[in-house]
Prior knowledge:
The complex is a heterodimer of chains A (281) and B (153). Chain A has 281 residues and is α/β, with parallel strands linked by helices. Chain A contains 7 helices and 14 strands. Chain A is elongated and about 65 Å long. The model of chain A has no long low-confidence stretch (mean pLDDT 89). Chain B has 2 domains: 14-77, Orthogonal Bundle (Arc Repressor Mutant, subunit A), CATH 1.10.10; 87-150, no CATH class. Mean pLDDT of chain B is 82; it is low at 149-153. Chain B has 153 residues and is mostly helical.
Amino acid sequence: MTDVALETRNLGKRYRKLWALKDFSVSLPANKVIALVGANGAGKSTLMSIAAGILPATEGDVRVAGRVVLLSQDKPLYRSFSVTDMLNFGRHMNTVWDQQRALDWLGRFAIPLDRPCGKLSGGQQTQVAMAVALGARPSLLLLDEPLANLDPVARREVTGELLAEVAENDMTVVLSTHVVAELAGVGDHLLLLREGRSTLDGDVDELLSQHARLVGPRADSPPVEGQIVQSGHTERQSTFVVRTLLGPETPMPAQWQAQPLTLEDLVLAYLKAAASGVREL
Amino acid sequence: MIDFYVDRTGSVPAYAQLVQQVREALRLGLLRTGDKLPTVREVVTSCAVNAATVLKAYRELELSGLVEARQGAGTYISGTLGGSADPAAMDRLRGRLRTWVGDARQAGLEDDDMRALVTSVLAEPPGELSAEQRAAQAQAAREQQNPRSAGPR
């Protein structure tokens, strides 16, 4: 339907004996915001590094449409360079460069151009790294938790401006984050990693319409057919998170209720299921 | 101009929240026909939601006839809500609600209990029952409008 921004086939990456990614096949839509979620060590950074071409895969293929820029947690800035120097550096390091776009970004956040990067606050450094990343006009921008050191207000602002950049340019953003609660309305597409594999991959709205929390009297299994993501029991009550065709619209027998999930609920249900390892997904 | 906000803690999807806020503003008279809605970019930056979310909300509003997109000029309010509903119907609903609230107080419910109850009922997926109810309501309205056609008594 839509163009593909990033496609992998049986991608694998091994560090000595440990597989950080294994049999990893996804196809991510272009011009979307893709939320990449997973526990620590699930393979998020590995995937991004391979997609950016700075880490060789052990096996399999990865295909990316257009220019890729990766912005990682440790911001790639030279402390003695002024902000202007950093932009010049960006211009020389990239075949395509949009100085105005980089300057616009810095202007929006009132970053002083003549100050050395080392003298900027953590948040300001993030903005400079972001400006350099955007100046390179990426078709695919990979953000590996770069917003982590921004305060909540700045994070919201940056997210907003970033989403506007996505809307106005041909750009796909893959955003890896731990702050699942802030993803609502931000990500179009969810990609959930678990132990180097893709556990959940799809359009956020579609996924939400296919999942529900079922609450009812204690039972060993839910009253409807579907994939059980998570289950919990108290003495008298059972709760199941299930994936079914109709999600919260699933007709329920008496005494049972089907409730919609928030994006955070959904992600947490899958992550917890992974952590407890009770059920193979 | 309406100021959108997006609550990320509830289970209402972001696009549905935007739709709700426009509807609410229309009901309260904060938005009127001809008013301009914020541009997609403005909502994207101020609420930090993706463009697809805003477009989906605006499309839904457009489909329900509340707004119209003018090519290159933005999205404008073109319909009305609530206030324009049949005043008699509004009165009837209000009366029934007042009776209901009285009953609920009698049963020992507090305001918060009632709100929770209303919210939970509103959150129920529209099932067969509400379709029947709607049919019954339509029937009742028809009978009220011209009682002679309701058949011999």
